[in-house]
Amino acid sequence: MMPMIHHLRRATTSTRLGLQDVVAGRSAAIRHVSTRKTADTMKYIYVHPLSQLVLECLQNDYSDWLVQKQLHANTLRLHRDGTFEIKFPKDKHTVTPNKNDESAVRIWTSFDNDSKQHWLSVSLQHGSKLQGRYMLQDNLSSGWTGNNKRRSLPERIQTAVEEMVEAIDDTERKQKQAGLRRN
Questions:
Q1: Do the beta carbons of residue 167 and residue 132 sit within 8 Å?
Q2: Quick one: the chain helix, strand, coil %, rounded to 5?
Q3: Handedness of CA 59, 61, 64, 65 (dihedral sign)
């Protein structure tokens, strides 16, 4: 399988990419149409290897879930540091989320410079304020200590993504049940 994201050079700005590109396994060479109506240009976006593993896991194992949640179109934002953010549409009639809407449900990767840890995080703002954080890698810890010695990095990523998807689904199920009880 061709890698979905090539890290050829660092982008100068964060870039939005439809998750349909990720789900379809297309290259992350993003086409931008110039505002001056000149020729199309290609821009290669750097994606950190841990973020790439998360995106590949979502693509390979949760593509139906992404489509069901409407995360397959214009919801992925790639950042200069190689991290990403996926924002859920506000409702099923909105295809593209508002990039400035901080109340939107979102999934993102990050790196904490102080603790030297890479994280996969989820924030569910409407209704329940579940905050899920899943450590992808601790750069200060030896790879031979703790649970890391028994599980490979792809296995740890798979577990983190699986737990995140289950947490999102459980929260949505609880919100539906609470809404049914009120009616």
A1: yes
A2: 30, 20, 45
A3: negative
User: Which tokens go with 4?
Assistant: 């979905």
The CA-atom distances, in angstroms, between 62 and each of 45, 91, 129, 143 are 23, 20, 23, 28
Amino acid at 102: E
CA distance 33 to 40: 5
Provide the number of structural domains found in the chain.
1
Nearest to 99 by CA among 81, 86, 84, 82: 86
* Single-letter amino acid code for the residue at 148: N
Q: What is the pLDDT along the chain (183 residues), one digit of tens a residue?
A: 333 343 333 343 445 555 555 444 444 443 333 344 444 566 778 899 999 999 999 999 999 999 998 887 778 999 999 999 998 887 665 555 455 555 567 899 999 999 999 999 998 765 446 578 999 998 888 755 555 557 888 999 999 999 999 988 998 888 888 876 665
Domain extent at residue 49: 15-182
Amino acid identity, position 41: T
For residue 176, being part of any structural domain is answered with yes
Of 23, 67, 68, 13, nearest to 45 (Cα)?
Answer: 13
